Amino acid sequence: AQSVAQPEDQVNVAEGNPLTVKCTYSVSGNPYLFWYVQYPNRGLQFLLKYITGDNLVKGSYGFEAEFNKSQTSFHLKKPSALVSDSALYFCAVSYLSGGYNKLIFGAGTRLAVHP
Amino acid sequence: GAVVSQHPSRVICKSGTSVKIECRSLDFQATTMFWYRQFPKQSLMLMATSNEGSKATYEQGVEKDKFLINHASLTLSTLTVTSAHPEDSSFYICSARLDRTEAFFGQGTRLTVV
To answer: How many angstroms away from the CA of B83 is the closest CA of chain A?
Structure first.
């Protein structure tokens, strides 16, 4: 079955330090991978995506992610965290099923950046 | 990016009544829209895939008679929660896709059934 795993429920990091939010996936074929951020009682905001090409993808608000095919991972990173980065982050993967492009999500990781 | 508008953002209804949630793609035509449900502190669970002009495709375990989906035009999909009960209280989010590489989300609807 297709799946996305985010092994950490919460990540705590001090402001100014680098952050990593982990994501692994299990999808047949070539996956399209995404990261989204969610603030309380809001929809999802797109951060970045990997479709093809360079394994290092740069996105919004200084975030980047590295696609690693051998490890089936797509970890989200940022060199210097801000308190305003505190939110809920979702990794997602798009795949074809029954003729439709489905998008499924990991369980989410809550990022807490402390001053 | 493209804009997806979801309405209402918040609704409170009495147990046994029905509630309709609208999802509109404002500046593009979406042949396919998706409906998700999110419980507190949990991920988004795909409920169904809504296709313009045809019946929706429901995920396993989702009651199609409970959650009625209509995709009457290329810019509008609706989710109706019929005979709502307190356990249906949740955060519902719609998504419209341009293709496999792009997905845009509505702002979500907080449904509370009392």
So the answer is: 24
